[in-house]
Specification:
Layout (H helix, E strand, L loop, with lengths): L1 H4 L4 H14 L4 E8 L2 H4 L12 E9 L3 E5 L11 E7 L31
Length: 119
């Protein structure tokens, strides 16, 4: 669907890259986590897609180099700003948020997530 529509989410791009790598005989796995966008903190205009929120990318095993992270959404080959939370063989095994809640009708149901890196 990603190729046909010419668009997709970071999860779609990661899966497409993984399948392409596997077709070429490379091992590939799905990674879910967060993308730290340091350009926003520096006041830059070149922010990355998916910065500061949940994000997905792929890792491809390259002989001699090991598992190398590839973020096809932003064209990044590095894990400098990629904060890994889950690594799986298939995206369906790394659901961004899964669970249930039982509470009172007037309980707060919203949720905000902020990622902050402190030195």
């Amino acid at each position: 669907m990603t190729l046909k529509s010419g668009t997709g989410t970071c999860r779609d791009y990661a899966l497409l890259l993984m399948e392409a790598a596997r077709t070429l005989g490379f091992a590939a796995r799905f990674v879910s986590g967060y993308l730290y966008d340091d350009s926003k903190l520096a006041g830059g205009k070149d922010s990355v897609i998916g910065g500061g929120v949940t994000h997905a990318w792929a890792q491809i095993y390259l002989p001699g180099a090991g598992w190398v992270p590839f973020d096809p959404t932003n064209g990044i080959i590095s894990d400098r700003n990629l904060i890994r939370v889950a690594v799986t063989r298939d995206p369906s095994q790394a659901v961004p948020l899964k669970g249930s809640f039982v509470g009172k009708p007037d309980d707060f149901l919203g949720m905000d997530v902020d990622v902050e890196i402190a030195a």
